[in-house]
Structure formats: C-alpha cells, structure tokens
Amino acid sequence: MNKETIISAIIDVCQTKKLDYITKVKSATWNADIVVKHETYKVAFNVCKCPRNVEATYKAMRKERVCGCWLLLPTRNSSYQERSLPCFNLISKTDKEVVCLNPKLDDNSTNQIELSIFLHSIIDGKIRFAEQAEINKVELCFYKNGCWKCHRENDVYFVNRLFSQKGVVIDGQNLMIDEDLTFNPSIIKGFQRYIQEHPSETFIMGEIKPRYSKTIGETYPSFGCAQCDSIFGNFYLQENMIELMYCTDSLRKAIITLDEPIEVSTNCWYKVND
Ligand SMILES: [Zn+2]
Questions:
Q1: What spacing in Å lies between the alpha carbon of 212 and ligand 1's midpoint?
Q2: Per-residue pLDDT tens digits for 157-205
Q3: 165 CA to centre of ligand 1 in angstroms
Q4: Predicted model pTM
Q5: Ligand 1 centroid vs 156 CA: distance in angstroms?
Q6: Where in the chain is the domain with CATH 3.40.1350?
Q7: Topology classification of domain 3-125
Q8: By the number of CB atoms within 10 A of the CB, which of 173, 206, 267, 269 ranks highest?
C-alpha cells in the first residue's frame, strides 16, 4: 500500500460513480491530492503518513463547501489528531485495504470498513461524526451464574453493544467509560418485552429489582436467583463481565429494542445506515 495505490482507488470510485475529479489541487489556503466533485459539494482527499495543520486546513476547506478527508498510511510514529477531525488510518489486510473509522475502537466490522466502501460512503456524505447518539437497540450477552446460596444455575446478562437508528455502533469495551447501563429502566423494559415476544426462549432469572446487599449495606437494582431470590452482587458480576467481554462470540445473545431511546455520548465516526 502506498500513496499512489490509494489515489488510484479513489479515481476508480470516481469513475464508477461517474464523478469529476482533479488531482494535485492547490488553492490559496489548502492543498489536496485529489478533489472529487459531488452534486453540491466537493470532497478533498489527502493521503499521507503524518498530516499537519489538519484543523486549520479542514476549516479553510469548509468555507468553500469542501469536505476534507485525510487517509493515513501506516507508520510507526503516527501523529495524534483530534478525534472529531476526519483523519482515518489505513490498514493493510491480506487481500484488501481497510479504513479504521476510530483509532482506539476494536477491529470489528463496524469500525473497519473496506476501502472502496468507505470511499463511496464518504463521497456520499455518509461517514459522519457523532458526539451523542440516541440508542434504540441494545445487544445483551447472557451467561450462567450459579446461585451462591442454593446453587441453582441462573442466566444473567451484560450490555455488549449499543446501536443507534442512524448507524452508530458502540462496542462493549468502550461502554465501560460511561455509566453502567445494565439496569437502565429502558433496557429492563425492552428485555421484558423481548421475553414476551420470544416465548420459545427461556431465561432462568429472578426478577430484576432492588435488593438489599449486606456486603455494602445498601439496596440497589440487581439480578437475583430464580429459585431463592438471593441477590447476585454487582461487584462480583462485573468481574465476570470484564473477563467475558473479550470472548463474547460463544455467548448467547439477544438484540432488544428500546421504546425510550437512551442518549449516550459517543464521540465517534460512523457509517450512516443505508
Ligand atoms: Zn438461589
């Protein structure tokens, strides 16, 4: 992968989309390797290892209805860029190049997009930054937890992924930053409805409700035993969750829909749903 191959990939996309483009553009206030003309705006690409003055250049471009995009070639000493700036790392995979939407997120299919799909999307204005997102779907992961008192096997869950209607996806490891959503009332309601709508799926689970914990001397929303109603302590469950979070592939999952969306701060780039 080098600058030339990436630029020729951009040209390929322009030709497929029948869009005009100009290479090696020098304006009074900014430069670009290639500028693509869309209907009412332009997209300017720069391909390099360590971009400079991205913020100032990006703003100067905006004044001329030009959307800047920096594609960063792999390098050992990558430069730090403000997260909200459109700088995206290129990664070479065995048979293709992919674009990483957000540098610190997991390498999953929602955060890493094949180069040509990315180029189509960004030219169409479908790669966007979200400071906040309205979460309307949540993926829960279930695992078995034996009751400490009666030893009955119970199901408990943790929140694994969040989805917004527009296409933002937030994965488990990045969820930990904010508040714990396990017992968010909207999620509990969504899960209860999921149980009603999927009668063939059985969950062995006591009611999710406030219980008194002797360990911390407080009452809090909790999972409990389906048989004896003993509380399953949050601290203990969170330790399990932190381990399981990295191997969720084998866990039972359910995607539940929320009637009342949950507003979360995201600060990430995403691809708008088609
Ligand atoms: Zn029990």
A1: 15
A2: 999 999 999 899 887 666 655 568 899 999 999 999 999 999 999 999 9
A3: 39
A4: 0.81
A5: 13
A6: 3-125
A7: Trna Endonuclease; Chain: A, domain 1 (3.40.1350)
A8: 269
